[in-house]
Amino acid sequence: MFPPLKHSGRGRQNPCSLYSIGYDRFSQTYKIVVVSFFKDDNTNQVHVYTLGTDSWKRIGDLPNSSCIDNPGVFASGTINWLAKDSRSSIVISLDFEKESYQKLSHPNVETNCWTLGVLKDCLSIFAYTNMFVDVWIMNECGNNQPWTKLYHVPYMVYRGNRPYCTPLYITEDDQVLMYFHDHSTHTNLVVYDSKIGTYNMPELQNIDHWRDSVVYVESLISPCS
Q1: Which of 44, 90, 109, 153 sits CB 3.0–4.6 Å from 127 for a disulfide?
Q2: Per the domain annotation, does 225 fall within a domain?
Q3: Where does the UniProt annotation place the signal sequence (predicted)?
Q4: Which residues are registered as beta bridge partners of 156?
């Protein structure tokens, strides 16, 4: 159980909150970050809970919070949010060690429809156009070209439609595991072979109900230590 979270100067107002989790390799602990939004004055408060402690710690407010509507994405010791204003989209990154924010540059994508993800343990961008999804991956800090486009994936045809496919995992031989939602809201998995440009839909055994998909990596790190 987490300790109760109290918001400074807010009384009984119930905010809208987004939770994210990640691992701080410097302190070797898991941390939960919650961003609480207050609609009355368009402000926010950010608190961090370190697993094994008995209290939340408030850190600096998240900039550009009014147009963030999804939890952050954890990659390489940072939590990253996609924020939008009236003119463009930006990526806001929280460094776990320093507990400070920075705005990250992003590639010059040809669409306003894009999301954040993680591939090969790196922050990634999935940019959706009418017929393709472009898969970008962030390079190491200090690189003159901070982003690399990995794939230009055409949409597959499924039951007469072309659903948006979101990458989940990339194998060593460039097979891209992706998922998409059909009209019944089920999550379907598909494998895209980037070398020959073909799709293969694996058969899932004994699963005939609503499902979702995440990537799980085994770890020797115990969340209870």
Answers
A1: 109
A2: no
A3: none
A4: none
CATH code for the domain of 82: 2.40.128
d(CA 21, CA 33): 6
The angle subtended at Cα 173 by Cα 169 and Cα 176, nearest 5°, is 30
Tell me the mean pLDDT in the region 88-102: 88
From 54, 79, 104, the end of a domain falls on: 104
Query: Do 27 and 77 have their domain in common?
Result: yes
Model pLDDT, residue 217: 67
Same domain, 143 and 95: no
Quick check: pTM over 0.85? no
How confident is the model over 138-195, as pLDDT tens digits?
987 545 578 999 999 888 776 656 667 888 999 999 899 988 766 655 677 889 998 9
What pLDDT does residue 156 have? 77
Mapping DSSP to helix (H, G, I), strand (E, B) and coil, where does residue 67 land?
A: helix
Distance CA 99, CA 1 (A): 23
- Report the alpha-carbon distance of residue 101 to residue 54 in Å, rounded: 25
Q: How many domains does the chain have?
A: 2
Segment 158-167 long-range contacts (CB within 8 Å, at least 24 positions apart): 158/182, 158/188, 159/183, 162/131, 164/128, 164/133, 165/133, 165/190, 165/192, 166/115, 166/117, 166/126, 166/133, 167/117, 167/119, 167/124, 167/126, 167/133, 167/135
What pLDDT is attached to residue 80?
Answer: 94
